[in-house]
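Thread: quick sanity check before group meeting

JM: Hey all, I'm pulling together slides for Thursday and realized we never actually wrote out the predicted structure for the chain we discussed last week. Dropping the sequence here so it's in one place. If anyone has concerns about the input, flag it before I start.
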Amino acid sequence: MDVYIYQASLYCKKCGEQLCKELLKPEGMDLGDEYTWDSDDYPKGPYPNGGGEADCPQHCDGCGKFLENDLTEEGEQYVLEKVNSGYGNPEVLETWKEFYSYLFEDHD
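JM (edit): ok, ran it. Output follows.
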């Protein structure tokens, strides 16, 4: 899933595009060169794969949508522990379990 980065937060494509419409473009900004502005001033992206590998599942800071990112080994362990404990939002845990199903496959 494509994401945008703005002020150290991740946003799904829909929320990121909405932010781009609402915010003023920084002075000197060149849309063809992301080095001409800072993500604190205006969203950068879209970037593929949910923003990339992380130590936990990422969710949009605008709407809460799961961003379907890859996980580090620590992230995989985190998901296994959370899902197996059942502690947390049941819908979120089920979404993670479905997306990261390879973690729950029987490896006999």
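AS: nice. The chain has a mean pLDDT of 95. The chain has two domains: 1-51+60-68, 71-108.
JM: adding both to the slides.
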